[in-house]
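Q: Hi! New to this. If I give you a protein sequence and the SMILES for glyoxylic acid, can you show me the bound structure?
A: Yes, paste them in.
Q: Okay, here:
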Amino acid sequence: MSRPKVLLLGKIDHAHVAWQTIADIADVIQPKATNRDEFIAECKSGALDGISVAYRTFDSVKITGKIDSELLDAFPKSIKFLCHNGAGYDQIDIPACTAHDVRVSNTPTAVDDATADVTIWLLIGALRNLPIGIEALRAGKWRGSPPPALGHDPQGKILGILGMGGIGRNVATKARAFGMRIRYHNRSRLSPELEDGAEYVSLETLLAESDVLSLNLPLNPSTRHTIAAPQFALMKPGIVIVNTARGAVMDEAALVDALASGKVSSVGLDVYENEPEIHPGLLANPNVLLVPHMGTWTQETQQKMEEWTIDNVRLAVKEGKLKSIVPEQTGLAA
Ligand SMILES: O=CC(=O)O
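A: Thanks. Here is the predicted structure of the protein with glyoxylic acid bound:
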């Protein structure tokens, strides 16, 4: 019997030992293509025929572009499983995968601690106006006392968490240690055990009453621009916003306006609407603390994410199922 074929889209950087367990049970194929047109041509040439499972990284979008109907039409019909290395899978059109009978997995929980850690770092940094001080220091303008922009303490402030999944709940746990009062809004209310004392409120209340707003919801067609001009208008003046989810859950141009008007006093960002481009209005604003999509960027978490994704590949090859199928596909027959 011929060996199963696994397509590797992207690289394994850390979990080499775990990846070897895949090479032991399957033929691993890497595309030669370096862009989408070449990749579609390579699929059509038959070079990838027989592949049943694909492992993909966030960065492999440079080779394939979005995983959409056009790409799925070009893929060999044998493909049944797409194992994505990452928590957010907005690069993948899930309804199109379902229509093409392709099951998709992601890496929930593996990213929670690292992403929540960066969220807290951005939250404190934005609250305390750290970018202003850092910039003054770098520009040689420090003369012995800090710049006049006094920050705020987190203690006693209301943290509104929009999206109370694994990352949101992890942020809540850590923010409690800073004395913050936690409120949240989610598609549905959590069990009291998962809420752990956080108060469930409407989106309008979350916007109107939060001192700090943390965005922790996934990006999909229904969450795009959840925070746009009408939502900024509802916010408590002087609110601080942190986004470690995806840039496009917030309208970046509207954020620039809200910062300029003072409605938003400061912001901490890890993600951007059109990565790797950053709106010039954000770059130019000293009230913006920014890092380049580093939420999961630690040795330990990258290793965990690769191992988690490899677990999905192994299960797909050996048993025709996934450890962490995306929620949109749970309940579908394998
Ligand atoms: O952005 C990081 C992830 O989606 O895992």
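A: The radius of gyration is 22 Å. Let me know if you'd like me to explain how to read the tokens.
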